[in-house]
Structures are given as C-alpha cells and as structure tokens.
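Researcher: Re-running this chain for the archive, since the previous output was lost when a drive failed. Same request as before.
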Amino acid sequence: MNQAVRILAITESSQANNLVVEARFGNTTAVRASHIFTIATITSLVFEKFNVYYTDLDNNGQPLIASQRIFPDKESTTDYWDTSLVKVKATISPVIPYVQIYFANFDLDDPSAIGAPIDTNGSAGDDNNGSVMIGTTPSSAGQLSLFSTPTGCSATVGKANCITGADGTLTVQFKTTMQPGDNFVIAASLSDTYRNGFQVYGVDILNEGSVIHKSGEYNEDQAAGIRTEMLTVWRRLHIEYDSMGVVQNNFVQGTIPNYVKIQPNQIATITVSPTPNILLEENRFEGGRLFVNGSSLPVTCDLVAVLTVIQATQSGCKIQYLQPSLFRLILRSSCMTMTILMTMTETIKMEILCLFRVKM
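Model: Regenerated structure tokens:
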C-alpha cells in the first residue's frame, strides 16, 4: 500500500533565500528527514580600485594570509579625489535582482606581531592606529558607504546594506584610514541576523563557530557568509636627495684700500673692494676666511662690502698703508656636501616603498 510523504514545515535557514524542508513518511514519527535547499548565495566578495585614476591594489606580501595593499597617498599636489576609497563588489548566484546583501567592516588583528608594543590585545583585532570620522564617531575599522540609497538601503557605523542590480551584483564603497599598517576586512551575508553575528578572531572572521571563507575557497562548514581578503594600508616615504659636486670659484678677491691694524684676539671691521666691482651677498661669507698679507682671518659677519673679522694669532695683523692690500675671501666650505630631507612634497628624487607601524 502506498503511503504519502507529509511535509511538516518549510522554514528559512540562517542564510536568506535558503529553505529548510522537513518531512516524514506517512503517520509515523520513526522516519523523519530534513534538507536545506539553497536558492541564492554570495559567490564572490572582492576589493576593487575605485577608478582608473587610483593606484592598483596589489599583493601585500604577507606569506600566511591572502591580502592586498592600498596606497592612500595623493599622486600629486593637484589631486582632488579621496585616494583612501576602494570598491567592494558582491556577486550572487544565480543572477537575481533586488536581493538584499548585508555588509560589515572590521579591523583585523595585526598579523605582524603577537605582543606589545604593536599588538597589545591578542587576537581580538581593533588594534589599528588610524581612524575615520563618521560624523563625530571615530572608527578604526574604516567606513562603509553607498553610491546611492534606494528604498531599503542604509549605511551606519560598521554596516551597510543594499539590493543587487539586474546582473546580480552590488558594489559599495569603503574608506580606509591613512595610518600605515592598519588592516581591514569586509564580510557579507544575505541575512541581516547572520551578518550581525560576525566576529574577529586573529585574521579570521567567525560566525556560529564557523570560519567564514573567502572567494574561491571551499565553504566547508556551509557558512552563510563570505569575506574579502585582508586589505592593508601602505604609505610612501618621500625622500629628497640633494648633493653637490666639487665647489669651484667659491671666493671673491680684490683689494683693501684702507690701512687697518688688528691687535691679537681683537675684532675689526674692514672695507673691501672686490674685483670685479660687485656687492657682496649679505652674510654669504659668514664663517669663511679672509686671506690677506699672509694672515687668515675668520669672518663673523659681512654686509655688502664691509667685513667683521677676528685676529686670533698672537702677532696681530697689519694691512698695508701705502698701497691697497690684495685679499681673497673664501666661503665657509669648499668640500662636497650632501643633505637628505624627508618631505611630503612632490619634489621627489628617490622613492622608497615601506610598511611601518609606530605606536604613538
């Protein structure tokens, strides 16, 4: 005799658009079964650069975790766009429009350290040094926002939700901090309730004891969510490198028309007549030397054509009385010099890419 299969219940599972069907055979309770039917799921959740003018997101170089990096620096002083923005694109399967996707953003634990001074809170995350202001609220986890806000869409601190388009995708925007070393991740679900259960554990996102998988990974626990790769802020350290070759013609010469006698260890003021007849640049020769009549006199000040010098020898110095004395005035330094200036200007001779973290 044929017996009917009785459907006991059809309920929504933890992931929206999944159904749980529970049935039993005939009137008996001994044979009973249930099964989850997936109607739609998020198959991909990835970061993308904001537009063609932004720096590409490339590999972060972390050996133990799939991750990307962003350079939020402006490319020039004329940049007017916010270079700390990236896109977050979610794709569902099958292609269904008007499906709500719920996002959450997190500050992942720093994978480069497991103790102070860099990592002071273990595997809990929330150890970024930078923050984004959302109104008057600082957020170390960055900020999710929407390109538009149709009915049913919203964005608050740490969360955003909106509906898929005709192609089954939804793209939102995310703003990082500017602090190098800060780490971020975005997780998403088709269920608002499941989204609210996401938690950070080290560099993983957990929910109901399951590790949330990334795009392309096997969803072993059939978790009702998905996450991006880790995104890390990198900054460029701009160095201006200046150097001078061997200095030439770093002197002025001419005559001293007046008689001057300088006592030992005394300061004197001398008027000079450069050849050709030029005005001395004010204080150009300060710290240099005046060579005259076999003496080398330190210059403490120079104004146009008047020098203040010190006679440091015991014998003193006489500048000829009957005819002008020849002199040579030497700059303070004639050797090769090199200066390095750390700058955030656009005058860049050499660029070093570095990732560093400083606890303030």
